[in-house]
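Help: why these numbers?

___
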Amino acid sequence: MDKPSVSLDQLQDEAEKLLALLKDRQTGMMSWHFCLNERLKGFYSLIAPLYQTAVLPVAVEKFSTIFHIDRSTPFNPVSLLGSGASFWRGPRGGNGRRGKLEQDARSLALTEIDLATIQFKSYLPDGQTLITGEDRILAVKAVRNDIPLDAQTGLSLYGEEGQKSLRYLYDTKGITWFECLGQTLRDASGLRYSLVLYRLVGGSWSRRCSYLGRDRRASDPAAVVCK
C-alpha cells in the first residue's frame, strides 16, 4: 500500500489560513469560533493520513458573557498616577484626603457582570456635544438605577487572559474607549481622575487615568450596569 503523502504547498496554504485567523482574534464572535473550528478540522484532515489516524474532534472554547470580577488584588492608584496617588475622599471641592471615599458601594459589591447588559452612556445634556468628567459623575448619580463600573472591575477586565471580554465588547458594541466612574482617583497634586480603558490599533486594550476636568464626547462613554 502506498504511503500517504501531502503536498507541501497545500500544507503551507492551510497553515497560513489558520495563522491569519489566529492573528485576527475575535473571540467574542461566534462566527469567528465557527471559522476557527472549520480551519482546524481542515488542517487535521490534511495531516491525519500521514499518521494513519482518524481526524480528531476539535473542541472550541465557548465564550460566556458572564464576567467574574477578580477582587483578589485591589486596584492601587499609585500604579497609574504615581507616588502619592490615592482614592478621593470627601466632597469634590475639598482636598480629597479626608472624609468618606467617593465611590459607588453597589459597584464594589458586584462579583460578576453580564457583559451583554453593560451600557455605555455619554450622559450628554440635550443639545450639547461635550460634558466634563465631573458633570458626568453628577449625571450618573442622578440616574438611580445606573451603577458605574468601579476601577477594580476595569482592572480585572484589562488583566483578563487574552482580554476576551474587552474584545467581546468591541465586537458586539463597537466600544473602543470607556471610563469607570464607580471610584474617583486623586493624584499627588489633588487633581481628580477616573480609570479609562481604551483599544489600541492592534486590537489589544490598555488603561490610563483621565482628568475629570477634561471634556468627554459621545464616543467617550461611561460604562454602567442598570439594576
Notes: The longest strand covers residues 177-186. The chain has seven helices and eleven strands. Residues 1-63 form one domain. The radius of gyration is 23 Å.
